[in-house]
Amino acid sequence: MTPRAERRPDAPGPRHRGRVARRGDGGYGDGGSVTAETALALPALMVVLAAVLSAGQVLAAQLRCVDAARATARLAARGEPEPRSVAEGHRLGPPGSRVEVEVAGTAVTVRVSARLTLPLGVEVPVEADVAAEREQP
Questions:
Q1: Which residues pair with 110 in a beta bridge?
Q2: Residues 6+ apart with CB under 8 A from 132
Q3: pLDDT tens track of the chain, all 137 residues?
Q4: Per-position DSSP letters for 3-21, written without gaps between them
């Protein structure tokens, strides 16, 4: 029989391969790097989140402008009084929108526009133009 090799008490065990693990660090010397990486990543994540939310606000305002212009043009083409058509455009459009109705011959053209204020004070213009033929009575 071969004699068993003596192991020194301070020698690393087979699990640590050349390094003695300190208590609580899991055997890896990363003490605090996860916190530092998270601190660097959070502002970037917040900027991306703000950009996505701002894009959603702009898209929603643009769709409201299109809906308002279509409804206003439809009412004006039917022969509704202009104040009623414009009131419907203001109701359906984004807050603070501007509604313009132009009647030329048999054509009705409606433009709904607004300025959307995003976070950090950025203003974005949104607008929609719709044309319709006037209906014959």
A1: 101, 130
A2: 73, 74, 76, 77, 107, 108, 110
A3: 555 666 666 655 555 555 555 555 555 556 678 888 888 899 999 989 999 999 999 999 999 999 999 999 999 999 999 999 999 999 999 999 999 999 998 999 999 999 999 877 899 999 999 999 998 87
A4: PPPP--TTS--TTTSS-PP
Q: Give the angle subtended at the CA of 45 by the CAs of 35 and 48, to the nearest 5°.
A: 170
Cβ partners under 8 Å of residue 49, min gap 6: none
Task: Give alpha helix (H) positions in 1-137.
Answer: 33-78, 82-92
Looking at the DSSP bridge assignments, the partners of residue 130 are 110
State the burial class of residue 47 (Cβ atoms within 10 Å of its Cβ: 0-12, 13-18, 19+). Answer: exposed
- Furthest-apart CA pair in the chain: how many Å? 115
Annotated domain spans of the chain: 38-133
